[in-house]
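Could you please consider the sequence and fold appended to this message?
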Amino acid sequence: MKTLLLCLALGLSAFAADMRETDQKAVRAAVEAFNKAAAAGDRAVLDKLLAPEVIYGHSSAKIENKQEAVDALVKSKVRFEWTGDYTVSVYGKTAVVHGLSVAHNNTNGKMTDIPLDILQVWVNNGKGWTMVARHTTRRP
């Protein structure tokens, strides 16, 4: 009986690890889809990836709701470039993404590169992963 319980526990542990890895890959795909949509100014994809209640925080301390964030991303077509690997930590139906990035955007006709520390929170709503919060800090 103990052997059966041990095998069951090990099997469930392996299953949970596989699920976590699958979720991490799905979140990474959502993050990359967001970055591509932001660079392209793709309103439809951005609207799908940002949750209705998203809190979208900028390094300038400006906070935007979903409509404001989508409008600004479509207009600016900012390109986020990760400067190394970023972490994805999954906690059930919630994932926290953290990493260093550079935002390449056109500000009043002038290209700017802003180094950022990005923190995003994604939630699996049953239809896929959507961003519910994002905050950046400007790096020196």
DSSP finds three helices and seven strands in the chain.
